[in-house]
Amino acid sequence: MNEAKRRIRQEHFRYLEQQGLLEQLEGLLNDAFACIVGTDSDKAAEKALRRQGFLCAQHVYQAAYDHLQVAKCAQRMWLPQCPSAIDSSGASTETAGSTSHLLGITGHQLLATHIPDRAISQKGCRALLPEIEHRLQAKAQWLADVCEHQGPIASLPQHLAVQVAAAKGGQLELVQQWQQQQQQSQAYLHLLNQVLTTLTQLVQDHLLGQQQASNKVQQTWLTAHSQTLFSKLKVIEKQLLVQTYNSETMPALHKLDDHLTRAQRKLDARDEKATARLYQFDQLQPEFLELTNQYRDLQEDLDHATFTLHEFQKAAADQI
């Protein structure tokens, strides 16, 4: 189990690395193409690229873009193989246009057609590595500035891990405080229930005329104690409201309220429309219903006559 978890973490880390490189490559290509938009010749495009600080020629960016698009298309066509695509002998029965290759071409065929020599294509794209590395370093430096990291970039992951751990610790502490407050609230409610029971008994004793003086003293004490408990409950309620309705949660609550209001308006409009339609149908006279039934009977007779005529024509054609 531990080995499987370790492999999963490694694959996840590898996926994040590849996604980071892919994101920077796409950003580099988009910036390069945005730079040469509007140029009327290759020479003007080269000048525009040099002016913006790009290191490679135009054809290098174009080749990398074509390679990336073909690779994406091929990856999307690598569908999972259906169980029915394997015959009894174990050989694949996939053909062009099958369920596994709905476009009539496989991913390998697409790569072989548009990128016949992958080594040459990859070698041509290696010239982009310095620019990609520069973009990654700039992004890492930006992330370090955002996180207020003063050390070297290599120690940024450890710094982020420490910050994440600290944030998790703070959240855990808030949850523990909320649980403690909830427990206190339950204890106060239990005490209030006991106070209510005691007050009820005191009132009954007072109505019976037993121990009037003692009951008055106990009633005064219980009233003051209840007011104290209610004050504590109000304080807890205010704390919960402050922690729940703050500047971070109010925009989301407003959006949710707007969404529910729009949905209610749509439902009201649909209800009014359906009510109007029902009222229109209710206002129709019985003659309309009779006319509808006659139209349906005539339609059935017409269909029957058409079918009979078709059968007669078919029989006559067979005799000839």
Give an overview in words.
- The protein is an all-alpha fold.
- The chain contains ten helices and no strands.
- 79% of the residues lie in helices and 0% in strands.
- Helix 1 (2-36) crosses helix 3, helix 1 (2-36) crosses helix 6 (129-146) and helix 7 packs antiparallel against helix 8.
- Mean pLDDT is 78; it is low at 82-101.
The whole-number mean of residue pLDDT values reads: 78
Describe the sheet with the most strands.
none
- What class, by secondary structure content? mainly alpha
Helix content: over 70%
Task: Tell me the span between the first and last alpha carbons.
Answer: 80 Å
Question: Can you tell me the residue ranges where pLDDT is under 50 for at least 5 consecutive residues?
Answer: 82-101
Q: What's the SSE pattern?
A: HHHHHHHHHH
Strand content: under 5%
Radius of gyration: 39 Å
The assembly state of the depicted protein chains is single chain
The number of helical elements comes to: 10
| DSSP summary, beta strand count | 0
Question: What gross morphology would you assign?
Answer: flat
Fill in the keyword field for this structure:
320 residues; mainly alpha; 10 helices
What would a concise description of this structure say?
This protein is mainly α and 320 residues long.
Annotate the secondary structure layout.
Layout lengths: L1 H35 L5 H10 L6 H20 L29 H8 L3 H8 L3 H18 L9 H52 L4 H33 L5 H34 L2 H34 L1
Helix pairs in contact: 1-3, 1-6, 3-4, 3-5, 7-8
